[in-house]
Design goal:
alpha+beta; 5-stranded antiparallel beta sheet; 3-stranded antiparallel beta sheet; 29% helix; rod-shaped; N_methyl_site
């Protein structure tokens, strides 16, 4: 006498095998998606910090000495502004230019004679944690040293609420002025 159907044990074994076969790839897929989101958040922060620091470095390297005192102190190459969170100089076009950390929205901004108001250099979803400028001892024409600036930038991503989607990166660079710092 043969009955059509399956025993309870056969159904439970089949259900367990099916669950394992479906759950394992789903777990791998979810894990891969989380990893990709983390990598994309880090890449976004890296791209932003890299562009910003390269742009600022190029402008500072090409800066000119202010011989008349029309922009900054006479015979100086740079001056710090914004309570040490900014730097002002005469750019290669002769315009007065400044990079500074706007503490209201935690973004790096740029102003110049040509542009007027502060233009953000960092994206909205990037928070500048700190912007440090060092090297003030070499910025005068009278000191006998080539002007050198060390910039330290710490940025935090704000891509999502999860901590792994808010990577923090620190980067530092030193820039010396291209033109020789000699008396005219």
């Amino acid at each position: 006498m043969r009955k059509n159907g399956y025993t309870l044990i056969e159904v439970l074994v089949a259900l367990t095998i099916f669950t394992v076969v479906i759950a394992a790839p789903t777990g791998f897929f979810v894990s891969a998606l989380k990893g990709q989101q983390k990598v994309l958040a880090s890449q976004e922060v890296y791209d932003n910090i890299s562009y910003t620091l390269e742009y600022i470095s190029r402008a500072l390297r090409m800066a000119r000495k202010d011989l008349t005192g029309s922009c900054i102190t006479e015979n100086m190459n740079y001056v710090t502004t914004a309570d040490g969170n900014g730097i002002k100089f005469k750019n290669y076009d002769g315009d007065c230019q400044e990079f500074y950390l706007d503490i209201e929205d935690n973004r790096l901004k740029e102003t110049s004679d040509a542009k007027g108001v502060g233009i953000p250099l960092t994206a909205r979803n990037i928070e500048v944690v700190s912007f440090t400028i060092e090297g003030e001892g070499t910025w005068s024409q009278d000191d006998g040293f080539q002007p050198k600036i060390t910039l330290l930038l710490e940025i935090k991503g704000k891509r999502g609420a999860l901590p792994e989607l808010q990577p923090i990166m620190k980067i530092q660079t030193s820039v010396s002025q291209r033109q020789l710092d000699i008396g005219y």
